[in-house]
Amino acid sequence: MVLLGVAAVVLLGIAYGAGLLLNHAEVPKGTTVLGVDIGGGTKEEAVTKLEAALGERAKAPMTLSVDGKEEKLDPEKAGLTLDSQETVRGAAGSDYNPVSVIGSLFGGERPADPVIPVDEEKLGVALTDLAGASGSANDGTIRFEPNKAVAVPGKPGKTLDAGQSLISVRDAYRAQVQTGKANVVELPVTTSEPTITQAELNRAMKEFAEPAMSGLITIKAGPKQIQFGPARSLPQILSMKPVDGRLVDVYDKKAIDTLLDGVFDGIMAVKADGKKHQVGPDDVAQAMKTALAGKTPAERTVTISLTGEG
Q1: Is the distance from CB of 173 to CB of 116 less than 8 angstroms?
Q2: 245 is in which domain, residue-wise?
Q3: Structural domains of the chain, count
Q4: What 3-state class would DSSP assign to 115?
Q5: Which among 78, 94, 251, 301 counts the fewest CB atoms within 10 Å?
Q6: CATH of the domain at 291
Q7: Is 243 a domain residue?
């Protein structure tokens, strides 16, 4: 028994030595990546073998489903790649493990893991672009139409769960490279509520929109004046936007400038810093804020200060 044991050790030693002698390639014989044999040659040869076998599946478009709508994703543009160079670099070099060395004499495999880096910033941008804003919540707002303000209630929507979607796509891509199968990836979505509540919409209508559209306003500067009314000019100028859960009035300065048509040309006003400037859309918009809240013709007439005082 002792002699048999010694003989077995000697045979294993001989086999180990033979394996080391015969397996001196940059990438050891029997080295495989996802079942692809890349061993027995140089690193360059291994990279070529790997890309020939897995390159197409690594570049194949992925199919993503967002709330039932399917979209294609280009892995490379989304920061998903199979890094053949790094994979081979990690698999190269001598392997002194007796099991691997002796196994190489009998066709044994030496599996190596693929290197599949993920550029999370690129992927995040790609997913955001892919999802778009079509499923996002629509905030309530107020439309200004000839002679009336119209309340438009908000609607809930569905938003892509960016963090979980990134993980799902990353894992699906790795599975696609490993198996060659491109399955549809269901991306998780969450329900998003409008930031403008019905109560806020009601407040904005009562406190701003309805008074604003209740009649003419008159803006004066020096000897000149101009009127803006709900039938034509105010709908061109007014809008509202959500800011921190509230609807805020917005004034289209370009529309004001067009409607002024030079009426205040040559009339100068003094700024707070003492410098003079031509009365323009900014001054008119500021005056309109006060005039639109008025209830009587007198309250709806505002004179722009030319002296820089109140």
Answers
A1: yes
A2: 198-303
A3: 1
A4: coil
A5: 94
A6: 3.10.20
A7: yes
pTM, two decimal places: 0.58
Residue 22: Cβ within 10 Å count = 13
Helix (H) or strand (E) holding 47: helix 43-59
Q: How many CA atoms lie within 13 A of 15 on its CB side?
A: 16
Q: What angle, rounded to 10 degrees, do the helices at 281-291 and 253-260 form?
A: 100
Place of tokens 């200060």: 305
Residue with the two structure tokens 């890309």: 51
Examine residue 113 and state whether it is found in any structural domain, yes or no. Answer: no
Token pair, residue 266, equals 């040559």
Among the listed residues 202, 213, 224, the one whose alpha carbon sits nearest the alpha carbon of residue 291: 213
In 10 A of CB 218, how many CB atoms?
18
**pLDDT tens, residue by residue, 166-215:** 999 999 999 999 888 989 999 998 888 899 999 999 999 999 999 999 99
Task: For the chain, give the mean pLDDT.
Answer: 86
Q: Is 210 a domain residue?
A: yes
CB–CB of 73/64 below 8 Å? yes
